Give the backbone structure.
Amino acid sequence: MTDKLPDNRKVTKSVEINMVTNIQPNSMVNEFMTLQEKDPDIRTAISWVRKNSKPPFRDMALGSYRLKSLWNQFELLTLQDEILVRTWMDTDQPSNVLVQKVVPIKQRRKVLEYAHDIRASGHLGIKKTLAKIRQTYYWPGL
């Protein structure tokens, strides 16, 4: 996938959901959307993006750190096929822009397990495993 961004950078990294689930592609998208909608912080951020309206920070006072982090990332959040994603410039290769799916809190352990524990993942160390996850996924604190 190569989409133009407003400042003429190109999105060169497409996102995949296959690490999170082993269901067929259309079902994977639907399942991921459902999981995001069930996560209260992500559901709130999705509503901001749909309205294209960032609420004032005072409205975040009682929110979780995850919600505050998503609020802080608002300008980087978009919906792609109705899934909340974050567009991020790869610090190792500034010409590359990563499109990272925002992972619901209940799916984070599964993403970590798939990225580290399964044989095909290569059983990398901590830094390489997290770098691999960051290529496709995002959550506050990752």
Q: What stands out?
A: The chain has one domain: 24-138. The chain has a mean pLDDT of 78.
